[in-house]
Amino acid sequence: MNTSSNADRLEQEDMIGMVNEILGSGRPGVLSTLDFNGAPQSRWMATSSFEDFPVFYTLTSPESAKVEQIEAHPPVQWMFSSADLDVIVNLTGRAHILLPDAATVKKVWRRIADKSRAYFLGDSVHGPGFSIIETTVELVECTRPELGRKFFLNPDRIHPAGQPSASSRLELSALSRCAGRCRHSEEV
Fold first, then answer.
1. CB of 53 within 8 A of CB of 137?
2. Fewer Cβ in 10 A, N or C end of the chain?
3. pTM (global) more than 0.85
């Protein structure tokens, strides 16, 4: 039995657990989009639901610049971290603004437990007062800065709502095999 591969498997399982914990914690994340000049724009987002991961939802003001930015350029990246910044999770994918049909609005509204930081909710005179951003995650990158370790995880293996499937054993993509041996400054 290959001890190195067993150690890698245990570390991989630990990483999946950490990602699930971070995304399920309710901590805010940072959403990055591109503006109309091609410059990155990042902002904290605090109202998210991960129950349908690798698809997740967040609320925003329908008047915010990010709505137009996402409509013009759907690729986005999100960043979340553990409270002590020991683990950083980047979610890369495509976002779009959902049309405000009643069923979707109710579903997403119910799933977002903490709306206390949705300051824009009192600003609306027409409609529901918020837009829904739906992000479909294509890549999960998990970094342990202190250890110089980076993992690329299959989004289908992540279950932040605390309902892991029978197939949730962590399997990294072929890229991640070398990532653990690369320094964080190298491209993987």
1. yes
2. N
3. no
**Is the peptide bond between 145 and the residue preceding it cis, with omega within 30 degrees of 0?**
no
Please state, in angstroms and rounded to a whole number, the distance separating the CA atoms of residues 142 and 144.
7
Cα angle 180-185-186, degrees, rounded to a multiple of 5? 65
SS3 state at 56? strand
Kindly give the confidence (pLDDT) of every residue in the chain, 188 residues in length, as a single tens digit, with 9 standing for 90 and above: 555 677 777 787 888 999 999 999 888 999 999 999 999 999 999 878 888 999 999 888 888 899 999 999 999 999 999 999 999 999 999 999 998 777 887 888 777 766 666 555 555 445 557 888 999 999 999 999 998 999 999 999 999 864 333 333 333 332 333 333 333 333 32
Domain 3-179 belongs to what architecture? Answer: Roll (2.30)
Among all chains, which residue has been given the structure tokens 């950083």?
Answer: 88
Q: How far apart are CA 180 and CA 177, in angstroms?
A: 7
What Å distances lie between residue 38 and 33, 34, 35, 146, CA to CA? 9, 5, 5, 32
Q: Name the residue ranges covered by the structural domains of the chain.
A: 3-179
